[in-house]
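Worked example 3 (structure in, sequence out).
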């Protein structure tokens, strides 16, 4: 049809003059012509289009036209379903000339018409067929350059449209390309594009060519976009459909083959998973999601990587204890006896834990804070956490947070990653098999933030009672309720813990042990445990108190009992080996019961080798410029000797030995304090002229910081200036101010324990810390003389030998 059209268009353009005169009608007079309406095609003047008529009255109208001028008026209904009355017809119609007629066998007539002019309808009457009275609308608008260029633009857009469309015949493209009037271009485009009738009519009724051309350009552009979108979608749908179909058929085939071979009928495992999902007590939405995933798994090829990922995911999800809870033991008495059985002393800590357990029992909303056990290594924080689980009758899980840098380690990786896993929290819960375990977040102070996200931020959600009932692990994709989990954190120091995280925790300090406490822990817990691991009893190997004290003093230097534990284990291994070595071939079979050994302070070196710690850590021999401070580090309390030398120089202050910023400030304060009190201490005010002051803290590998070294710096500086020694058995701690006050410090017990370990006999502390002495075990305070001062000058006078400061001393 469109082929014929273009031929006719060509023919017409050759004989245009003759034809136009043939059916030219005069304007301004009324014409009475046969009339019919069409409802889909809109014929513009100067365009050719076929119409089909089957209605008897329309056929009569056509026959009447053929008998006369071959002219016919074609009108456009406002509502296609209603009558052809004037009211239901647009007043502008088109006068057409009939070019060709073809009667089809079914009685339908196909007429090829050419639009001649737009006409204004005035009446429509009916007598066997419709007759219209109309006037020619004569508005020959001149074609200006703007219109011409718009026509060119539209032609280009149409070429693009036809190339994307792909099915528009070449002849039509050529016809449009040859269209040189707005009517022709509009008419032809409306004829070949699937524009709605309402849009075509809008163009037909609009007499302003420029508006019409601009609108058709926009319409064509949007048609192009629609086509592109359709093609894109079509491509994707096709691809998807092909893959799904292929997978489905392959899956079905595999099932068939397996059936014949008598193998598993559920190769993807989806049926089994569906049954398991059905049993989970989840909310409807989450269950639907899992069911959908299991159904998808069923359609995938069982051996495909995608199926592998999905199966592992679903298996992980169904194995989680969504509603599996253990019963809590509610007896506080029992809890107390379990805590006492498993840990020596720790009275304060156990007491706080029992309070905490009691409060949890009444805490229906589960909003009690998380417990954070803080203290030096090896003081039993981890094992105390385990005891809390035992005393509550709950399962226990431990997550080591040391070195965790990536948020995904807490919250999991999205399952699409290769080798993706849930985060540590969900893994720990899965391991315990219940949703209300005690989970120990070990070394919470060792997490580190990195570019991959801040694990502390993820932990905030885990520990927040307001949020943790909908904790979403990236791998799981559905929320898991953590509100029943009892979290306990451990840390060596509170400083590195981000403030918002610390805010969610209740801090419980676990302190270092005295030698006597360590000996007791060794006798009651460490030795029996270690003996058990090698299958012996205390009837076979025993330790004298002196041997244990020797291990503590000469082989360990720690606040906790970790190294003590290690050394006891080494002793036992050594004894077992020595006994086996005594055994010779041919002897009676070796029996463990035959071992009899007592570890004493005399034979200890045979088993453990030479002492690791020299006899007296702090030697009696003293030098000017040396002062023994006490510091609190992550490893507990420690002695911190400080050395100061003055040498010829340019007044520089040199600090070495990994001193932190606060320590550096303490050094500045000490120098300023001494300078401003020269007279008081009998020091030359120009003592720092032409000299460099070098301050050094030995054991440079350990980072030291904090303000409590103020008094140590000051005393070492005065000692260096005055070339007078300070008693090395006196250890000291205290922050100083420029005006000479001695301010209180923290961690006194740990510091004094360290001083005692190192053989100090005297400890100088700020007066404000006097009240803390009562927390230090008596066996330590009995051995140490405390000197308390509120002012730096008093402290300095007490540290140096009489006569050092002349009249002031
Ligand atoms: N008071 C105590 N009574 C009995 N055993 C103890 C006591 N304190 C520590 N231990 C034992 O010492 C060993 C080390 O303790 P644990 O691992 O719990 O230390 P920690 O404080 O968690 O150390 P870290 O800070 O390095 O994690 C354990 O075997 C523990 O049972």
């Amino acid at each position: 049809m469109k082929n014929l059209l273009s031929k006719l268009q060509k023919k017409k353009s050759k004989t245009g003059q003759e034809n136009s005169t043939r059916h030219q009608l005069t304007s301004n007079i009324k014409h009475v012509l046969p009339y019919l309406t069409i409802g889909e095609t809109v014929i513009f003047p100067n365009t050719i289009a076929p119409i089909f008529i089957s209605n008897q009255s329309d056929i009569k109208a056509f026959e009447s036209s053929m008998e006369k001028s071959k002219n016919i008026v074609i009108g456009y209904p406002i509502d296609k379903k209603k009558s052809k009355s004037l009211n239901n017809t647009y007043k502008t119609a088109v006068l057409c000339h009939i070019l060709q007629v073809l009667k089809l066998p079914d009685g339908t007539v196909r007429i090829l018409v050419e639009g001649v002019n737009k006409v204004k309808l005035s009446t429509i009457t009916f007598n066997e067929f419709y007759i219209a009275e109309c006037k020619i609308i004569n508005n020959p608008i001149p074609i200006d350059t703007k219109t011409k260029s718009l026509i060119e633009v539209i032609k280009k857009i149409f070429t693009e449209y036809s190339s994307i469309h792909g099915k528009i015949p070449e002849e039509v493209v050529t016809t449009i390309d040859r269209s040189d009037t707005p009517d022709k271009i509009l008419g032809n485009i409306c004829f070949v594009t699937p524009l709605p009738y309402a849009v075509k009519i809008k163009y037909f009724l609009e007499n302003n060519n420029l508006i019409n051309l601009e609108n058709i350009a926009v319409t064509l552009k949007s048609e192009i976009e629609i086509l592109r979108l359709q093609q894109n979608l079509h491509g994707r749908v096709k691809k998807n459909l092909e893959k799904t179909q292929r997978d489905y058929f392959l899956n079905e085939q595999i099932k068939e083959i397996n059936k014949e071979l008598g193998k598993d009928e559920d190769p993807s495992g989806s049926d089994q998973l569906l049954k398991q999902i059905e049993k989970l007590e989840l909310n409807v939405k989450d269950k639907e999601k899992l069911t959908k995933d299991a159904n998808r798994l069923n359609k995938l090829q069982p051996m495909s990587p995608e199926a592998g990922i999905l199966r592992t995911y679903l298996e992980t999800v169904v194995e989680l204890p969504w509603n599996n809870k253990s019963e809590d033991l509610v007896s506080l008495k029992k809890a107390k006896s379990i805590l006492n059985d498993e840990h020596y002393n720790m009275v304060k800590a156990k007491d706080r834990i029992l309070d905490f357990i009691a409060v949890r029992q009444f805490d229906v909303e589960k909003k009690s804070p998380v417990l954070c056990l803080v203290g030096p290594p090896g003081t039993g924080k981890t094992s105390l956490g385990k005891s809390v689980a035992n005393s509550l009758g709950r399962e226990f899980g431990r997550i080591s947070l040391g070195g965790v840098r990536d948020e995904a380690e807490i919250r999991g990786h999205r399952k699409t990653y290769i080798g993706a896993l849930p985060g540590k929290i969900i893994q720990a819960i899965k391991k315990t098999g219940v949703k209300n375990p005690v989970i120990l977040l070990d070394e919470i102070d060792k997490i580190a933030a990195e570019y991959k996200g801040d694990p502390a931020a993820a932990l905030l959600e885990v520990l927040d009672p307001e949020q943790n009932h909908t904790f979403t692990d990236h791998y799981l994709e559905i929320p898991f309720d953590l509100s029943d989990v009892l979290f306990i954190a451990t840390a060596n120091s509170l400083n590195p813990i981000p403030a918002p995280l610390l805010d969610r925790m209740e801090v419980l300090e676990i302190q270092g042990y005295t030698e006597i406490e360590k000996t007791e822990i060794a006798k009651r817990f460490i030795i029996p445990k270690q003996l058990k691991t090698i299958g012996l009893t205390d009837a076979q190997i025993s330790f004298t108190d002196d041997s244990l004290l020797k291990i503590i003093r000469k082989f360990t230097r720690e606040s906790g009992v970790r190294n003590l534990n290690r050394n006891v284990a080494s002793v036992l291994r050594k004894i077992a080996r020595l006994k086996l070595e005594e055994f010779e071939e041919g002897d009676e079979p070796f029996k463990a019961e035959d071992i009899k050994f007592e570890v004493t302070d005399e034979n200890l070196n045979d088993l453990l080798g030479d002492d690791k710690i020299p006899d007296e850590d702090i030697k009696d021999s003293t030098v000017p410029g040396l002062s023994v401070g006490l510091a609190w580090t992550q490893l507990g309390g420690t002695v911190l000797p400080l050395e100061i030398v003055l040498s010829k120089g340019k007044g520089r202050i040199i600090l070495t030995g990994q001193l932190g910023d606060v320590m550096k400030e303490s050094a500045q304060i000490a120098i300023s304090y001494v300078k401003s009190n020269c007279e008081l201490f009998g020091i030359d005010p120009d003592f720092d002229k032409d000299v460099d002051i070098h301050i050094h803290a030995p054991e440079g590998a350990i980072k030291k910081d904090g303000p409590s070294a103020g008094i140590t710096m000051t005393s070492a500086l005065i000692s260096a200036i005055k070339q007078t020694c300070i008693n090395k058995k006196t250890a000291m701690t205290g922050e100083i101010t420029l005006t000479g006050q001695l301010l209180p410090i923290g961690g006194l017990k740990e510091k004094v324990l360290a001083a005692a370990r190192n053989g100090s006999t005297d400890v100088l502390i700020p007066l404000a810390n006097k009240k803390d002495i009562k927390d230090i075990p008596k066996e330590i305070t009995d051995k140490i003389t405390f000197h308390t001062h509120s002012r730096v000058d008093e402290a300095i006078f007490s540290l140096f030998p009489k006569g050092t400061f002349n009249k002031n001393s």
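Notes: Residues 209-260 form the longest helix (52 residues). The pocket of adenosine-5'-triphosphate is lined by residues 343-346, 377-383, 442, 490, 492, 521, 525, 560-562, 565 (CB under 6 Å).
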